Amino acid sequence: MTDPDSSDESNGYDRLGGPRLWLLLRLNRWAFTGVILLAVFVVLVAASGLELTPLREIVESQDGIEFLFSAFIGAIITGTSIVVTINQLVLSQELGAVGQQRGRMQEAMGFRRDVESTIEEDASPPEPAAFLFELVDGVHERANELESEMEDERDEELREKVAEYVEETTGNAESVKSDLRDAQFGTFDVIWNALNFNYSRKIYDARKIRADHSDSLSDEANEKVDHVIDTLQLFGPAREHFKTLYFQWELINLSRALLYISVPALTVMALLIMYVDGSALPGTTLGVDNLVWVTSAGFVVGISPFVVFIVYILRIATVAKRTLAMGPFILRESERDEDLG
């Protein structure tokens, strides 16, 4: 995974900083799963040191092992079946007749042509990271063209506003482009950098400049502002498309992960029910009853499919929440750093 202390944070253009978002978005899903499971294991083992009824007594008197782990068998089978079925229903949207598939192809090629004509490229790259790189680079170039057009502008307030807008836009674009160079679709890097480019705010700011200084802007300057806005407007659909593909990719990974984990988890549950009772594994290790070690480990294995499900859905839900609105709409107060009037 990419170091969270990347260039985005150092140059001030990281919109997704903070430990909470790093945990929800950037941390490797398997590492996140391991952290949660380890925490549960430590809590269960540590609880044996409290002034509570010893586990071995509970198992001997109430047959606690069978009571606890038999419930996991039904939960794992039912939960895995439901999740995989739901995921397959979502992915089934990709299936369709040849006419539907041809229509999707035509729409995709039409969007590519729109992007190519706007950023003045003969052929846009096929890879998602490279495609977004060229689109952000197009915004960068259009912003520089706008700044060049304003060099002889007599309205000092307008010139300062444009210079500030261009500085923020090019700085954000350079940061995102730098990280997109080595990004590979299938990892979270592509979506992470797409989220770091706040195109909605940039669309609003460009339109605000044009509305507030319509009398001062020349026809050429107005045209340059339009070019910036047009390029930014293409970034939204591109990001949403790749976000959708990433969600489908993650749902496939989630389904495979649950299928891989479920059978070993069920096997462990069966072993604990069949061969472990109150007289098993006498003695202690590190001052803790051996039965506590084994039961705690078994519980962690039993909840592992559920934890894997949680960590995958947390990332998908977090990305979905941060991309609810497409276009010049800003839902988070943190991005409204001035009166939007």
From TrEMBL:
Membrane-crossing residue ranges in chain numbering: 30-47, 67-86, 257-276, 291-314
Key words, A-Z: Membrane, Transmembrane, Transmembrane helix
Pfam family, one: DUF7972
Record's signal peptide: none
InterPro entries per record: DUF7972
Protein name: DUF4239 domain-containing protein
Species of provenance: Natrialba swarupiae
Lineage: Archaea, Methanobacteriati, Methanobacteriota, Stenosarchaea group, Halobacteria
